[in-house]
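Continuing the batch. This is chain 6 of the set; chains 1 through 5 are on the previous pages. Same settings as before, nothing changed between runs. Recording input and output for traceability.
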Amino acid sequence: MKTVSGLFETDAQAKDAVAALEDAGIASGEISLVSRDGKAGSDAAEGVGIGSAVGGIGGLLAGLGAFAIPGIGPVVGAGWLATTVLGAAAGGVAGGLIGALTEAGVEERHAHVYAEHLRRGGALVTARVEDAEVDAAAAILGQSGSVDVEDRRTDYEAGGWTAFDEMARPFDARDDPDGEPHLRPIIPPLPR
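Output for chain 6:
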């Protein structure tokens, strides 16, 4: 199995990507969605944005839950990735989201961009697929509006970012003057 991932600016795009993956025959159990859901403020349990966005997705909605990821803050997620991150947190295992992604076969370089994208209010869709399905799944994510991970890295690095820091203060949507997730300012980490 290979992991194919896509970054999305909106929960609606992420929901469309999940629906398209399911329509292509990828099992719901092999698809995950995690979103920072900036509308939820400090209480991800009020994750109305992503909760209603995934409302139409059969198998994935059953696993929908709110939790916090160090350095990202409150998120709403469903699927195998959310379960893996929650399990690691509950067991006190270090690595969090980056560890879960790299363990699933995502390049560490990309995992850092995915985590930072979530930190800044975006959404992440991942699918575990057979080798023969990789190109089709990647095409579906692209057609659904996924952001190019290297372009996003370039945007972040232009602002001084080097890697995701789970000790950083979670991004607060009120800190975003222009509404552009990829242009949001880097917020200094909390004192340790």
